Amino acid sequence: MAEIVLETAGLTMRFGGVVATDNVDFKLRAGELRCLIGPNGAGKSTFFKCVTGLLTPTGGQVFMRGHETTGWNPRQVAALGVGIKTQVPNLMDGLDVHENIWMAARRFLPMQDAMRKASEVIERLALGPIARTELGRLAHGERQRVELGLVVAGDPWLVLLDEPAAGMSADDVERMSDIIREMTRTAAVVIVEHDMQFIRSIASTVTVFHQGAVLMEDHVDRVMADPTVRNVYLGKKA
Amino acid sequence: MASFWAKEVPATIIVAALLIWIMPMMIGTYTLTVLLIYGMLGFSLGLIWGFGGILCFGQAAFFGLGAYTYAIAAINIGDSTIPMLLAVLVPAAFAALLGAMMFYGRLTDVYLGVITLVVTLILFKFISSTAGPEYVIGKARLGGFNGIPGFQTLNVPGRPNDYIYGDPYFYFCAVLLLIVYLLVSWLLKSSFGRVAVGIRENEVRVALMGYDVSARKTVLFAIGAAIAGLAGGLFANWGEIVTPNLFSLGQSAEIIIWCIVGGLGTRIGPIVGAAGLAYLKFLLGQQSMIDNTLLTGIILVLFVLFLPKGLVPAIASLWRISFGQRRQLPRHGARRIRSGGARHG
């Protein structure tokens, strides 16, 4: 069995009287690709934010490659070599694509290597024609792709993506799943996603959240066939 | 980076040399000197606000601190060299402390403005109330609202009786501003500067890449304060007196107006804005028909309404429209078609 790169033990997050994630035990092994799904308010985004350090959990622990990272801020998590993409696109709008990706690469590489890395990532994600265009002028799908480029440029061993396919066209989604499949060769990937077509296309193991807790964990096809999941997630009668 | 040393540095030096040669023929060097000093002060805020996204309402605090540091040290030491260095270092250290407190405390936007404003007010109130004989640092009396007159002004290092004043002092300030300008240009081309611009654009993203945003903002803030402090030290030498008015709110507000009018996010804009508005103020000071502050206010309102990006960016885009069109058009056209395609596809 591969090494466990991400683990949570009893992870709990309360907002006042609301328990958004309730005692979640989660394990992810190196090279794994895992999607987190669940209806709105199931706690998957809160779980994601607790893991990335955007929120400090009220209880439980988070471990990454053996380090306890509970309560760390996102910078510290990212500095470990974890690539993070938030739900709301976070890009440097006034700068061009190359500068954005260069900056992500520069964090872990010296000047010249970062330049090489940026060109390489731009080529890999087919961003060449827009490399010198400001982010603020790009279409939504292109921006999502650039943000994945930022994640890739840091050579992460763990990638955490919150809704990478949100609001994208079918073509863009297809290209996105290619990029993500390629990521899994070097990193373990966790994706919070709504788009079932996208999840099917990357054919991964799925963890289903419901009311703050893990309902089920299995391959996407079996999860989709499960009557309880269909009931809570797809709103169909079992 | 290569083109920076090969093209930009020589070009900047040539333009600066021409200006240093031509300007004294039009404006007296005594006035020009203070315009340069204000230019440097505007430049210091232009750096941290325009490139680092840190809106500091208290840039005057570092300016005043530099001036007072110089005056107090000059009275105690007698030679101007070390006081001049202290005028840079003391505000920088003060800003590093203040910045660390603010940026590690995750203060942003309005709160940052409030804190820096209040710090300026505290300094102003404190210095104004130091009239009594008990407020003495070494041999220097702080003097309350009357300030500190009669300190050693700039001299050739090691020779306290060889004063640098008049025309030579103008050239000294001009060369110093040029050096600061080149150093800042280099800083902005370096990884540190580029990441600073990234922080201005999106702090969260830069943190998510694993950069220590708080540390970087603190350092940039201190660099800005060092430049403001240097300007303060130079101002003390020019005026031969320092008063609490250096810390005043009016002074702080003016620096912000210089940056807005000149053009934020450019290097030359805040310098031009500062020197231009200060010269205008100087000219208007010779008449009593219109109130000076009122006019500065009107200029600010007009700029915010009609040239919100400021003078220098407006001139630059005008230049591009008139001369750069042939080169620009095909690229824009191609881009529009492609992005249109992507949107519909």
From TrEMBL, chain A:
<protein>
    <submittedName>
        <fullName>ATP-binding cassette domain-containing protein</fullName>
    </submittedName>
</protein>
<keyword id="KW-0547">Nucleotide-binding</keyword>
<dbReference type="GO" id="GO:0005524">
    <property type="term" value="F:ATP binding"/>
</dbReference>
<keyword id="KW-0813">Transport</keyword>
<dbReference type="Pfam" id="PF00005">
    <property type="entry name" value="ABC_tran"/>
</dbReference>
<comment type="similarity">
    <text>Belongs to the ABC transporter superfamily.</text>
</comment>
<dbReference type="InterPro" id="IPR027417">
    <property type="entry name" value="P-loop_NTPase"/>
</dbReference>
<keyword id="KW-0067">ATP-binding</keyword>
<feature type="domain" description="ABC transporter">
    <location>
        <begin position="6"/>
        <end position="236"/>
    </location>
</feature>
<dbReference type="InterPro" id="IPR051120">
    <property type="entry name" value="ABC_AA/LPS_Transport"/>
</dbReference>
<dbReference type="InterPro" id="IPR003439">
    <property type="entry name" value="ABC_transporter-like_ATP-bd"/>
</dbReference>
<dbReference type="InterPro" id="IPR017871">
    <property type="entry name" value="ABC_transporter-like_CS"/>
</dbReference>
UniProtKB/TrEMBL annotation, chain B:
<keyword id="KW-0812">Transmembrane</keyword>
<dbReference type="InterPro" id="IPR043428">
    <property type="entry name" value="LivM-like"/>
</dbReference>
<keyword id="KW-1133">Transmembrane helix</keyword>
<feature type="transmembrane region" description="Helical">
    <location>
        <begin position="292"/>
        <end position="319"/>
    </location>
</feature>
<feature type="transmembrane region" description="Helical">
    <location>
        <begin position="45"/>
        <end position="70"/>
    </location>
</feature>
<dbReference type="InterPro" id="IPR001851">
    <property type="entry name" value="ABC_transp_permease"/>
</dbReference>
<feature type="transmembrane region" description="Helical">
    <location>
        <begin position="12"/>
        <end position="38"/>
    </location>
</feature>
<keyword id="KW-0472">Membrane</keyword>
<feature type="transmembrane region" description="Helical">
    <location>
        <begin position="82"/>
        <end position="103"/>
    </location>
</feature>
<protein>
    <submittedName>
        <fullName>Branched-chain amino acid ABC transporter permease</fullName>
    </submittedName>
</protein>
<feature type="transmembrane region" description="Helical">
    <location>
        <begin position="218"/>
        <end position="235"/>
    </location>
</feature>
<feature type="transmembrane region" description="Helical">
    <location>
        <begin position="169"/>
        <end position="188"/>
    </location>
</feature>
<dbReference type="Pfam" id="PF02653">
    <property type="entry name" value="BPD_transp_2"/>
</dbReference>
<keyword id="KW-1003">Cell membrane</keyword>
<feature type="transmembrane region" description="Helical">
    <location>
        <begin position="255"/>
        <end position="280"/>
    </location>
</feature>
<feature type="transmembrane region" description="Helical">
    <location>
        <begin position="110"/>
        <end position="127"/>
    </location>
</feature>
